[in-house]
Fold this protein.
Amino acid sequence: MKIAVLADIHANYPALLEVTEHVKSWEPDLVFVAGDTVNRGPRPLECLRFIQEKARLEGWRVIRGNHEDYVIVHSQPDAPRTGALFELFRYSHWTYEQIGGDTTTLEALPEAYSHEESECGEFRGVHASMRGNRYGIYPEMSDRTLKKLIKPPPAVLAVGHTHRPLVRQVDGTLVVNAGSVGLPFDGDARAAYAQIIWAQGSWRAEIIRLPYNISQTKQDYIDTGFLENAGPLARLIQLELEHSLSQLYLWMSRYMNPVLDEEISVEAAAAKYLKAPLIEPYW
């Protein structure tokens, strides 16, 4: 049994194409996409259509991540269209517009996938952890903490969300964080995906890293209008690609409440952050 796990594509079409070619040459029995196909990147419609076609023609299994949820919010009648809260998530509204304002496909995606065979047990895939799609699994976590995030424990739990890959055995569960196809946060700009194999009576996994045409992705930020139209935080997202480190989380922790309290604008807070962005890993 061979399973390829892709996660956190984040609308990076060149990275998705490169990973897909490698997956094709590996010839897995199953391809699982662990959410965040769209948003926080410049080519959401192309990536969504590509994944939809793979699901339809080749049986890829696809679930929803928190960034699909962010886009779905914009379809609600009471979703903000102006003001500080809208500006905080203008980049996801840009994605909403790019996919034509139709979130039906995103809403139809399940939150988890499970495949079980008597010999090898259950393979389970969720976006972040069993606690929910915003509670991630990080390499520095203790086994004690991980146990709380993988209950009930399957034979294999495959996740994404944190953009930082991990392979660890926790009691009887192989925990695999596939990292990110399109927006790694571990300081390594190469696309990542996981190869998981059942052989000789046990599960094992390997994280694959692949160079891709990142110059094209950088150009896509400009050509698609993402930098111009997705709001002040679009520049922080571009920095995430350039440095392979999360910027939005740190920015939100510093400025989200002051922005919502109208003490500072999103534009001014983004400009302030950009004077000294994160350029080295903090862990």
